[in-house]
Write a structure and sequence with these properties.
The complex is a heterodimer of chains A (200) and B (381). Chain A contains 8 helices and 6 strands. With 200 residues, chain A is of the alpha/beta class. In chain A, helix 1 crosses helix 2. Classes of the chains: A alpha/beta (200), B alpha/beta (381).
Chain lengths: 200, 381
Amino acid sequence: MNVYEGVMQTLIDELGRLPGIGPKSAQRIAFYLLKVDALDAKRLAHAIEEAKDRVTWCRRCFNISEGELCAFCLDERRDDHVVCVVEEPRDIVAVERTGEFRGRYHVLQGAISPIEGVGPEQLRVKELLARIPEEEISEVILATNPNIEGEATAMYLARLLKPAGLKVTRIASGLPVGGDLEYADEVTLGRALEGRREVS
Amino acid sequence: MLVTADAGPATSVGHLWLANFRGLGEIDVELSSGLTVVQGANGQGKTSLLEAVGWVARARSFRNVTDALLVRSGATEAIVRAEVTTSGRQQLFEAEIRVSGRNRILCNRQPVTRARDLHGLLRVTVFAPDDLTLVKGGPAERRDFLDELLAMLAARYDAARSDFERVLKQRNALLRAGVREEEARFTLDVFDEQLVRAGAELTRGRLRLLERLVPAVANAYETLALDLRPITAEYVSESSPVPLAAADADTIEDQLRESLVRRRRAEIDRGLTLVGPHRDELHLMIDGLDARYQASQGEQRTLALALRLAGHVVVRELAGAAPVLLLDDVFSELDAQRAAALVRNLPTGQTLLTTAGALPRDVVAERTLVVRDGRIEAVSP
């Protein structure tokens, strides 16, 4: 679709490189940006620049952060002894929204996936291991995704951490709350049955 | 007998609307709940009509071609809409199959995001001219046949199969990249365990299916060939010194685990997963002789038909509703005697049949469609 000239094509090409944006969307966004107020477009450009300049990885948990440490690592009211391990920073947001977790986080920045050339050494695993004695962590919650790669990563970490005498737990997979059993797909319901609990 | 008096409720496709599906233009047709015959010269779009019905059942082509190839050239999307009746309940299936980007599927006007959620809407049994490969072809053909039946029967086996395939891809990538350091060996241990879990689930499913399928195949073969020699089957796995049976279900995980230990050196050397259900073989035997190598072409063809018919019967029994039969140009490959036997023993329920020539005498169409140049030229009655 190289029908535009010069800067316009460059803009479409750049937008097209973003995840989830195809050539048609890229073209639509490019024309939208041309139409909007110059100030609005500049504000977007500025926001991108600022974010690139100021956001880095938290030195401790590898969440995104504007300083050395992220907001969760700086928060003194949090429980130092429990750490929730997630794949990506956006997973922290999902866990935080539950309001159920008051411990610390550790972001692996991915999951084990040999297809993509990602092994444990490409993830922040060593950093997690180093944190355990340093911060006297006693429980690790493995909150990686419930797919093959996430399960493999969780299993890898569990095998690594359990011999150290830690409490290692895996988040349960199962039914959405507020849903009807009738509408749950068989696979999800099957896994929920496997992970059933005794009612106290 | 293949046809029982009480075949249970059947699934059927009533109204069918298509646009730009393969060679077809716009199609708007009502199918018979019994036998619909689709006639026309070659290349006019008969098979496409069957393939569209098959797409409703599986959200992919039964010819295993990618969706982009299903869209008529020059168009950006194909439309498939179908009224599906199961146990008296009518549902509307709608799909936009796109050349690029995600397909859009609606069931009763509600978006369907995963093919798995369509499970059980429509089941089809497909007879195609190349079914001979089920018997004559390599072990992968028979594994796929079993796995497709399993997926039709229970969503958990559909999930087990895709989990297994994913684990296999990851594990092969790891083995290919080389497993030299301690850390890589530790990662391989993890994928070993995943392979064992997903692989055992898939193997158990196949063995339980075979327990029901093999007697049905023997039955169908006897009826079609008028041949009393016994049909047997052996499921052979690298992980077991003797053929596996459903009774072995509980020990499969352990057997897989042991073979992975035994074969680890070889797997690392070759950079390939050598243990698992992706290498298992189903041997079909006529009177104790392997049908792949030791049967005549006629026997192989009859056995392939018997496999399809038996699959149909087993799905009907276990799922409680007869699948829709799609017979693509099957009579051209059969001699008169076998064609007649097939016609006599076709299960009841909705059937779509394509033919370029004349039909065997006993075939009574309840509706005939004449397809020409991507359009329906005539409908009778």
